[in-house]
Design brief:
Rossmann fold, 6-blade_b-propeller_TolB-like, 8-stranded mixed sheet, acetylation, serine protease, 5-stranded mixed sheet, hydrolase, alpha+beta
């Protein structure tokens, strides 16, 4: 990097708009209730300056060592460029046996403050015991994916591809409407792929934006067998409104009163204003409807025999949000998830949905036979208004409080995630259920539980096999949904799940529910020879194999392939599954801030180990899970001083820190030489549902003592400098940081928080998840899901006493506070209040405000600025 392209520093001590930029990937536990591997996307905006705490001397405006700034920039860029954030994977199997993997990799572009995507095409070369000479392939450079492309959906037979894209020359630039969306239909025969049709969707007319959110509401899906029809979810259009003073008499000549705007409705909640699903979803319309698109006639029709369709069409209050839609085996009905958005008994106030899987939802089925026949015909007039009716919808899971993620097996079994009683915590473990397809319909009476919601890891689960770092199978805890194509044979499916401090793959028999751990042994390695690695399914193949990504804290990721015979062998738990490496993707930088290394050596200059600690309660209670922590240590020369330690408790609290790669780890540990401690305190997921439910009503005590116990254990181990301890966390991790420096004011030397919960009592009235405040502070069963009420005086008192603000007068360590000013989850006044208390008490503190960021502080430039500040804050005070 050339200095004159970096920053220009004025004599007044300000960094100009052409500021020094850094490139850093997703921070640890960036969102309150996400696991560390979650990715936050933000709209492009101008770069944010880096307010480096050590850039200037405290006594003058003299510039300090500029070379260290350049080195930090290069270090960040190296760590982020090495990230392997991949998705949309698919394998094409040719007649001769050759297989090709295509996948998309996301890369953060610091120059333009956005995420860019690149598509790779990689050969899968499977060796055998014969002496057959293997072909030699040379990987081509990846190609950038246009930002207009919103989704790619391959048909079941892989002979068609639907590409959803936004039109460049359409409306949508007025801030009130979305750009017109178009489906491009491609024939994907190997000999000559061709674009055969472009179908404009009725965006802003029949519906709003088409949904392509695979983690929450799902993506469009092809019909089976004929590959002619797509079903998709899209936002329900808001009613048109107009000021009282602009209202005009309806057109009496045409009699067209359907599109007349509602006078005076533009400021009314449920009409001109929407009650949204909260944090990060506030720009989206809350209600989603289902639509069919016939790709040969180009006709689009709304599915009307669904729950909520009889509700008031002039209001978005009440009703249901529909998504995760798939076709039934015969292609004449659809199965989908419906979230209660106020139409049932479980949502009197719409609560935040992101990171909160406990919201009431059920599975439904709707016949679409007549609607399919209707859209298969070419319209006879310009305005074909035939009324098409099908039989009424059926609720498939009336006795389950939660049900989602429907998937159909090759022979017609429906599997899905569910919980009969549900749970009050924002995240938890679910069961896997099954229903049979009989006589052209799903047989509701055939519902069976395949994998139970596992309660305690101290009790071995019947029908489950596998141990991961002393943790038996904890039940299913999925980040997102079941894989879109999760079946590898008629009776076997695979999925990812959080298992202790890692993400693992499991194989499930859909006849008897037998669950087996699947550990890929890549290129002859033993299944645990690399330590505790995270392995995640990217996709399955049509022949029954798996493509996966293996990553560790010091290895961004290896793409590998498990063939069908290895995946199906009976002794897979003991031997693991032999896998072939497909690719180790080289660093990919999209920034001018610094060149990157062609290897990943800089990110591997540290080691990590798993700690399983026990701590009984003050009354002798033996908890349902250990305190499992990940200790990360920098490599140091013999005789060097012990490194300082930063403890990083995750957010949630019902989340987890895993061994997956995050750029934060190599930057802080491998390059900045800090030891790191990632504590999965009681309440973390991946250790059974009982461990999750141990924490509610005990927050500020159980979780705080667990964190301090782990810190003291490491401090006394001789591996770190016990006199230089720091703590850093966001959201509930910030809550724990505030408690630790208040309850244990002499333990830590410095602290950093991001959007911290500091006062639960005041947060209750402003957050999008008031249920969280009641459940975590007062306990399970204390929140009324059927009736919205404010907290009682007793509850508010309990919330206050369990908040960091209760101990704020004892805080004395230097504290950095970062706030996303658009945060709806933990409103920024929480951190502001804490900041002013500390400052008035004479505690050294610093406040960072990111005007355009929400809870994760996920915008590329803001995130980079945030972590540069964190590193420099610890440099200065430890």
């Amino acid at each position: 990097m050339i200095w004159n392209r970096a920053s220009k520093i004025t004599s007044s001590g300000n960094i100009t708009r052409r500021s020094l930029l850094v490139f850093l990937s997703h921070s640890v536990g960036c969102s309150c209730f996400s696991v560390p591997s979650a990715i936050a996307f933000a709209a492009a905006r101008r770069p944010v300056p880096i307010f480096a705490s050590r850039l200037y001397s405290s006594s003058s405006s003299n510039i300090m060592d500029s070379s260290s700034i350049l080195q930090e920039t290069a270090d960040y860029n190296n760590c982020v460029s090495a990230s392997v954030n991949v998705g949309n994977a698919r394998v094409v199997e040719e007649d001769g046996g050759q297989m090709w993997l295509s996948l998309t990799r996301s890369v953060e572009d610091i120059d333009n403050d956005k995420t860019r995507s690149y598509e790779y095409t990689l050969p899968i070369i499977v060796t055998d015991d014969s002496n057959t000479k293997q072909p030699v392939f040379h990987n081509m450079p990846p190609t950038e994916v246009s930002s207009n492309i919103q989704a790619k959906i391959y048909s079941h037979q892989s002979c068609k591809l639907a590409i959803l894209r936004a039109d460049d020359n359409s409306n949508g630039n007025d801030g009130k409407t979305v750009p017109r969306q178009v489906f491009e239909i491609w024939l994907t025969t190997a000999s000559s792929p061709s674009l055969v049709r472009r179908i404009p969707l009725p965006t802003n007319k029949l519906h709003g934006k088409v949904i392509v959110d695979s983690d929450t509401f799902g993506r469009p899906s092809w019909s089976p067998n004929d590959d002619k029809v797509l079903v998709y979810a899209a936002e329900r259009k808001k009613p048109e409104t107009v000021s009282f003073f602009d209202y005009q008499q309806p057109n009496q000549k045409t009699g067209d009163n359907d599109n007349n705007p509602i006078p005076g409705g533009q400021h009314t909640l449920g009409v001109g204003k929407s009650e949204t699903w909260g944090e990060q979803l506030w720009k989206n319309e809350p209600l989603l409807d289902l639509f069919l698109l016939h790709t040969e006639t180009g006709r689009v029709a709304k599915v009307t025999n669904v729950p909520g369709m009889d509700d008031n069409a002039d209001s978005s209050l009440g009703s249901y949000t529909l998504g995760q839609v798939v076709f039934a085996p015969d292609g004449k009905s659809i199965v989908y998830t419906g979230w209660d958005a106020g139409g049932g008994q479980g949502m009197p106030k719409r609560l935040g949905l992101i990171y909160c899987i406990q919201r009431h939802s059920k599975l439904y089925a709707s016949s679409i036979s007549n609607l399919l026949e209707h859209i298969s015909r070419q319209p006879t007039t310009d305005k074909d208004e035939d009324v098409v009716t099908d039989t009424d919808y059926v609720c498939l899971t009336p006795n389950n409080r939660m049900a989602r993620s429907p998937r159909m097996s090759p022979e017609g079994k429906l599997v899905f995630l569910a919980s009969k009683e549900g749970f009050d915590t924002h995240f938890g473990h679910l069961a896997l259920h099954r229903m049979e397809w009989k006589n052209g319909a799903i047989d509701v009476s055939s519902e069976a539980v395949l994998v139970k919601q596992h309660w305690s890891i101290r009790e071995q689960t019947e029908g489950s096999e596998g141990i991961v770092e002393q943790i038996s199978f904890p039940g299913l805890a999925l980040v997102g949904q079941l894989p879109e194509k999760c079946f590898v044979s008629q009776d076997t499916m695979v999925t990812n799940t959080i298992w202790g401090s890692s993400e693992q793959m499991v194989r499930i028999n859909v006849n008897d529910g037998t669950t087996r751990l699947v550990r890929a042994c890549i290129d002859g390695s033993d299944k645990w020879s690399k330590g505790l690695t995270s392995q995640r399914i990217l996709c399955t193949t049509s022949s029954g194999g798996i493509v996966l990504k293996e990553s560790t804290l010091n290895n961004p990721g290896v793409i590998a392939y498990i063939p069908p015979d290895e995946l199906s062998k009976p002794n897979i738990v003991d031997e693991g599954a032999a896998a072939t490496s497909v690719a180790s993707l080289a660093p990919l930088s999209a920034s001018t801030c610094a060149p990157v290394s062609a290897t990943t050596d800089p990110v591997s200059d540290f080691t990590y180990q798993i700690l399983n600690l026990e701590r009984e309660g003050d009354d002798g209670t033996k908890w349902n899970a250990p305190i499992q922590s990940i200790l990360v240590l920098p490599k140091q020369e013999e005789g060097a001083a012990k490194p300082p330690l930063i403890c990083l408790p995750h957010g949630g609290p019902h989340s987890v820190s895993t061994t997956d790669y995050l750029p934060t780890w190599p930057f802080l540990c491998g390059l900045s030489k800090y030891a790191l401690l990632l504590v999965n305190y009681r309440g973390s997921v991946g250790f059974g549902q009982s461990a999750v439910e141990d924490l509610p009503s005990r927050c500020s005590d159980l979780d705080v003592k667990d964190v301090v116990h782990a810190v003291k254990h490491v401090a006394e181990s001789g591996l770190v400098d016990p006199a230089r301890l720091g703590i850093c966390g966001g959201s509930h991790g910030g809550f724990l940081t505030g408690h630790c420096i208040g309850q244990y004011p002499d333990l830590f030397k410095a602290a950093c928080t991001r959007n911290p919960v500091t006062n639960i009592a005041s947060m209750m009235s402003a957050t999008d998840i008031p249920d969280w405040c009641v459940v975590e502070a007062c306990g399970i069963g204390k929140y009324d899901w059927n009736r919205f009420t404010g907290a009682s005086a007793e509850q508010l008192s309990e919330m206050y006493q369990k908040s960091p603000i209760f101990h704020s007068q004892k805080v004395k360590v230097p504290t950095l506070i970062a706030l996303g000013m658009q945060d709806l989850r933990v409103p920024p006044f929480q951190g502001l209040e804490f900041y002013h208390i500390l400052r008035s008490n004479g505690v050294k503190t610093k406040l960072l405000q990111y005007d355009d960021c929400d809870h994760p502080i996920g915008a590329v430039c803001s995130k980079a600025d945030h972590w540069i500040n964190i590193k420099r804050w610890f440099d200065e005070h430890m």
